[in-house]
Each structure stands twice: as structure tokens, then as C-alpha cells.
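hi! just following up on the protien thing from before. the input was this:
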Amino acid sequence: MGEHIIELNGICKSYDDLEVLRNLNLYINRNEFLTLLGPSGCGKTTTLRIVGGFEQPTSGEIYFLGNKINDLPPYKRSVNTVFQRYALFPNMTVGENIAFGPNLKKRDKNEIAQGVEKMLELVNLPGFSKRKISTLSGGQQQRVAVARALINQPEVLLLDEPLGALDLKLRKDMQIELKRIQRESGITFLYVTHDQEEALTMSDTIVVMNDGIIQQIGTPEMIYNEPKNSFVADFIGESNILTATMICDFSVRFLGRTFPCIDKGFGTNMPVDVVLRPEDVELGIPTDELPRGRVVSCIFKGVHYEMRVVCGEALILSVSTKSVPVGTAVSINVSPENIQVMKSSEMTPDIIARKKAQLLGEDIDALMEEQEQEQEEE
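and the predicted 3d structure came back as:
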């Protein structure tokens, strides 16, 4: 277990009658890349600003290496921030921008020059010191902003959606670059994003937030494969979330059939939710032993196909390298280890309704009624 560099204990934040953070408890380890992930308005940026000293919590305590820092102003905290708008000085060169902080602190000029060159090497911009900011691409400006923050040798670097202004390809490249920079610098990164792919790609730890509350904390693999509730399952990647009944330990019923699973401890004949990742849903020849449905959509995505299957009142998404034509009757199967059982959530009907609506231009209810009639005739 790593050393806790930052601890947030019972943090609450309100603006008039609007409660933005609700009793948030979180610790960040030294040299960790921790990402706050969630939709707009979930409280992630407010949390980052509280760590940076730009906002004061309504209640709760902030500790830095064991010392309470609630009343410490931003410039006295060993943190630096990179915002989505990089706020570089257009009248300065790249080197002058990076050297801005050390110059304010009146450090030795030779030391500053060496530090600038070191930072340019770290962010893969050697030889750019004399370049004007206006000549740089968005990705290059983003690297300069990171270098300008890192040259001050902060214990923690705060990054508030810094890749949001970049195009898709550059954003993917910078995800890898930021993770490399974090590892090589050994500085703790606290990153804020609403982009699930960014979080999964870069993070050591992901904190999923919604409505000012932490929903789950874990590694990217844990968050994706073992979501704690329907919100996390739906927010992290594509998922099929279904109402179900836990028959007993290792046995769960959904889509009108009983499946073996690896979960236990939910009781007997208890309502639960199940999460099926699309890549784990297998489509085959219809049988009486498995749920049956009909393919209503098949979309080629470059490296795989996305098939949507109407099964009773559910719309199931399946991903495979092999396509199944629209209109094909299929069975639906999932291996026991790929069935994730969770406590029943009131959110599930809303999530199901939204996923039904994702089938562009199709009348889902009509398709379901048609399938039910076909099954009755059979």
C-alpha cells in the first residue's frame, strides 16, 4: 500500500441550496495516476479545485502528507494545475512559458535553463525552446502546459480535462504520452475527465462519481469487469443491464431462463440486476434451453460488428468479429464467469429505456410485440 499524499475526509460543498459534494472520503497515493470520472455536474472538477485550493469545502478536512491544509492558499500548496484551456502566454516563447514559474521564484538562471531543457525532453519537444506558441499544434501546446507545471516540481499535478480541445487521434496519442510522463516524472497525477476511454487507458485508480457521491473506486480492470451498481456499469463502456432473480448461490434467472454464475451471497429468490458486456454475449442457433431473440440491427465498426437483438422486453447488444444478418432468429448465451450480479437498482428501468432508444429510427416496442407474436405462434 502506497503512502497517502492527499486525504479528503468528509468533504461537503454547497453553493446556496445546491449540494455539489456529499461527504466525500478519498485518499490519493504518492506516484499514483488517479482519475476522477463522471458526467458533467457530478462534482469531479469541484473536488480537484478543492485539492488545489481554488475552492473551500463547506465542511470536511483536507490533508497533505498528514498536515491539514484547508486554510492554505493555492500558491503555498505543492500542486500545479493544467486546465483544458492551457493559458499559455502568446507573447512568450516556449522556453519562456516553461520558465515562467521558476523566474517568479527568482531561481538561478543556469538552473532554470537546464530545467527547461529537461522538461522539453520529458514532453518530447527537444529543440522547441525558441518557438513561438502560435506556431504550435494543440497537442504541442498541451505538452508545453504540462512542462510549465512540472518544472515547478509539484508533489501533485492537477489536470482538469486537458485533452478536451484535441481531435480524436491526437487525444489518443496524448493519453499514452501523459501516462509516460507521469511514470518518468514520478509525480502524482490527479486527473479529471468525463471520457471513459481516457480513464481506462491512463489510470492506476479510477474514482467514479455521480451527483456528488463516489460510486466506486478501483483499478480500470475492476471498474470495468466488476461494477458495483447500475450507474457504474452503464457509464463505463457499453453494457447490457437487466433485471433478474437470484435463485440461489451460483444460479440467476434473467431473459426467462436460469443461468449458472459465479456470484453468491445475494439470498434466495431475490431481485438483482445483471450486467452483460456486449463482447461476452454469444449469439447462436435458437434452442429451447436458451433465451431466443431476433437481430434487428447489425453495424460494422471496423474491427467488429455490433448486433442488437430484441429478446422479450429487452434489447441486447452483442459484439463479435462475425456478423449476423438482420432478421435472423438467434439464441443468447453467456458464460458463468461473464455474468456480473449486482444489488437491484431503481436506475435499471431508466437505463433500459435509454438503451432501447439507442436503436436509431426503429420502433422498439413494435419489434418486441412482433417477436412475442412469432414465439406464441411457434
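The first strand starts at residue 4 and ends at 15.
The domain at 230-377 is CATH 2.40.50.140 (OB fold (Dihydrolipoamide Acetyltransferase, E2P)).
cheers
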